[in-house]
# Entry
Amino acid sequence: MTIEARLPGVRRIGGKWRISVALAASLVAVACGGTRYLDAAAPVEQRIDDLLARMTLDEKLGQMALVRQDAISPAQVTEYAIGGVLSGGGGAPQPNTIEAWLEMTGGFQEAALATRLRIPILYGSDAVHGHSNLYGAVIFPHNIGLGATRSADLVERIGRATAIEAAATGVNWNYAPVLAVPQDLRWGRTYEAYGADTALVAELGTAYLRGLQGDDLTMPDTVLATPKHYIGDGATEWGTSRTGRFSIDQGDARIDEDELRRIHLAPYRAAIDAGALSVMASYSSWNGTKVHAHRYLLTDVLKGELGFEGFVVSDWAAIDQIDPDDYDASVIAAVNAGVDMNMVPTDYVRFIASLRQAVRRGDISEERIDDAVRRILRAKFALGLFEAPHPDPALVAAVGSGEHRALAAEAVERSLVLLVNDGTTLPIEAETIFVAGVAADDIGRQSGGWTISWQGGVGATTEGSTILDGVRRLAGPAATVVYDPSGRFGGEGVPERADVGIVVVGEFPYAEGEGDTTRLSLDLREQERMLGLSDRVDSLVVILLSGRPLVVGDLMLSADVLVAAWLPGSEGAAVAGPLFGTAPFSGRLPMDWPQAGRYATSAEDGAVGCDVPVFPFGHGLKANEAFRLEPFGCDGGSKEADG
Ligand code: BGC
Ligand code: BGC
# Structure
């Protein structure tokens, strides 16, 4: 009998003795005094039972707290046996480098491992279009642009790349994908969604989740996904928000159960079937009741009917909103409704004390606490954190890599939607090109919100390339490219005319309710200035950078070529590809492009009730397909098309 036959888990490979992971884990367990929960070979549910049985109440309550990174020290993570730490929008260390991220996340992880039971933390971040809090990470197009690509394969590869860049910095948990199905584009989070179609959101959301989690969540290059915000965040009604100056974000979804299920539930069903182990609750309400306090939605539907075995994480201080005057009552309501982990985000001492008091008084049962902790631990075991709590140093090389930038560039090209096309301008072949608009040369602007900071910013906020870079690259050495952000093209040596004028205009960065607005038109003064350009060029190409369809105005009507480029991210140069014919135009609208007035609330914004879209869902031309706007019959900014 050979040694291999006698000792299962031992094998000679290439002349060297090797043991299997399972055997190694068992040996570790023996060395740890037979501690069952540390035995990677034991079934996860048994490991959870074993660990739970060893935990004190305080250790359980600590697991239920998720704290913002600059509100807690590593020593306090140990003291309170905290379950998770997060970087919110812009929650980067200073300096914002990979090394500093590793030091920060590593410090918290070490602190968690220094607790009595050595339970690792989840470290979460909003890597919502790439690892977007990290300077130098590749920033992919926001989801609305990915929706235009219609490609699950592409979105899955983006999820993979994002997981790798996040995991490289010690982030093992991502607050993505957004599974909202936005019904009203005045909502500032419209661009975070893949589109306004339930099937599209379900398909691309699960593709992204598969990318993040890979086919084996224990591998070091995967992160835990978090479909959000459950449920109905895209269904809220204008004017119902009670948060600060928000209007629709975090508002009330006034729809019946049939509509809630038909439009907004299906993506969650798909994500759970695809292996989601954490879900973030929505700030919003359903017919007047906060989702965070909605037992039917969180417990009966999500955990019961949909069979969700992971944990529900609250949104940022969302529990506090349940009853703004009574924190303890809010905590009781949320936990009893089914929230398992509280994104506190700062005053975790108060949260833990409130929770402890609720348990002592019998307002929250110990069974509910055990269930919450069990769900949190399930995700930690599934991630393999007990075996490998620290990031794999080999991943660092992939952060901001050429390979990931090429993937982002592919996504940008495929996300462009050609809305209007005169049939002669494309592909651009020109001796002289005027490029206008501040946004043509602005990485921050083209990336939108959730980029380095929560709201995003203008200028060179991170590394990447701009649309102007791409035009210069593809125009060829013989061509003259003149850039004037103002669009005036005056002064010495500037040619009087150009063959082509490329104007880049659009929205400024925003995030969440800060982007709630009824003003869906371009800046009128900027439009007027850019319009002046049409007399000096043979063809006018207008590129829109925006998180949602904008109202068609004069500039858009006079465009020979009109392109929706969404929020392409750090690889802006790729926008030039389809314009110059090095890549096809293939994007299709992920939502209707409404007329002025579709969402107007006052005469000033346009007439109300213009329901026929200017461009319907699915619209998107090929470079050789001519299409001009038909005159459309509703007031409020609509005009007859020229030509
Ligand atoms: C944080 C964001 C968070 C927001 C909530 C900001 O300060 O950076 O991550 O979503 O607050 O209001
Ligand atoms: C947002 C979430 C985000 C969280 C953490 C909240 O304000 O609604 O989408 O994951 O902050 O930054």
Remarks:
- Confidence is low (pLDDT under 50) at residues 635-643.
- DSSP finds 20 helices and 18 strands in the chain.
- The chain has two domains: 55-395, 416-605.
